[in-house]
Amino acid sequence: PSTYDYRRAARDALHFSKLIDRFVQNLRRVAGFDVQYFATVEPQRRLAPHLHMATRGTGPRAELRQIAAATYHQVWWPPADTVVYDGANLPVWDEDATTYVDPRTGEVLPTWDEALDALDADPDAEPMHVVRFGPQVDAKGVLAGSADADRCVRYLAKYLTKDIAECHAVETDAQARHVERLVEALRFEPCSPRCANWLRYGIQPDNPKPGMVPGYCRSKAHRREHLGYAGRRVLVSRKWSGKTMADHKADRLTWVLNALGVRPGEEGQDHAAQQPPALASVASGNHAWELARPTDPDVPPREHRLLRAVGEALKRRAQLDAARQSGLSASSEGRAA
């Protein structure tokens, strides 16, 4: 307990849902398509939330670990580390000014917008909190219809009817004290711009109302059964399409062809890129065709082949950008007309 940072643990839990959103966004950017997923959030033994996610398709596990390591979420809120008002010394609601004021001086507390403006004006400002994933990322491949697939489905589906606090039963006094300390830290941590706990740190919440008291925010994030995580327990991709990886590749090919103005089947079109990949070797009459090996004498050096591939990629990118720019110009002219 003396070395465990309960404030950081509370903030990690409060903003964990934003970290998940950022991870899915990064995953889709790297994959190049809308990755479909089914996920659940479960607390660890120390009650820190972690994610179980099943995604459709395949991908390098090392790449998945790199995405998780590079994913983070910054919370750009006013600092909430120094307690300004506590106990009986709490801000008072002024009916005439419809705002909270200092109980002794009557001075109006900074509004939420004013606090954000002060944060923007500070050149040395830092985010109130940065939440990241831990170093442990366990990625496994699961085949449909296998025993592992059934086990994973049962594991994910069981959280449809369970609260976060029910995942690990408290069995010892040390565990009970740990829960109490975390709940106490969550009690006074701001959970949103409208949280009443901002009054504790000398800032009016966004859209303040009379009767707000620090430590008594009604958000479910402060409740014991949620342990700081106010997001959805079960996360399902809203873009679940039922498409396979081959379907996604076909969609991307169709999009590129449409952007370039290429219509499959028209005369004069180069259909080489649309054909399936060639086999390693093909027998045709008295001749046998096979892919060239890197050690063959008529194969250019690897450096030349890499430069040629980069040049071809840049050429295709330039053609695609030109086609898209032409389409945007035509749309602008049509609207102007």
Q: What's the β-strand tally?
A: 9
Q: If helices are DSSP runs of H or I spanning 4 or more residues, what is the number of helices?
A: 8
Low-pLDDT ranges: 276-281
Overall shape: extended
Strand count, sense and barrel status of the largest sheet are: 3 strands, antiparallel
User: How many domains make up the 3D coordinates?
Assistant: 2
Task: Measure the end-to-end span.
Answer: 70 Å
Which whole number gives the mean pLDDT? 83
Q: What fraction of residues sit in β-strands?
A: 5-15%
Structural class: alpha+beta
- How much helicity do the residues have? 25-40%
The ordered H/E elements are HHEEHEEEHEHHEHEEH
Physical arrangement of strands within the biggest beta sheet? 2-1-7
Radius of gyration: 28 Å
Protein name: Replication initiation protein
Biased composition (Polar residues): 326-337
InterPro entries: RepSA
Organism: Streptomonospora mangrovi
Q: What does this molecule look like?
A:
With 337 residues, the protein is an alpha+beta fold. It has two domains: 6-236, no CATH class; 247-336, no CATH class. It is built from eight helices and nine strands. The strands form four sheets. The protein has a three-stranded antiparallel sheet with strand order 2-1-7, with helices on one face. A two-stranded antiparallel sheet has the order 3-6. It is extended. The relative contact order is 0.14.
Short key terms for the protein model shown above:
8 helices, two-stranded antiparallel ribbon, extended, 337 residues, alpha+beta, 12% strand, three-stranded antiparallel beta sheet, Replication initiation protein
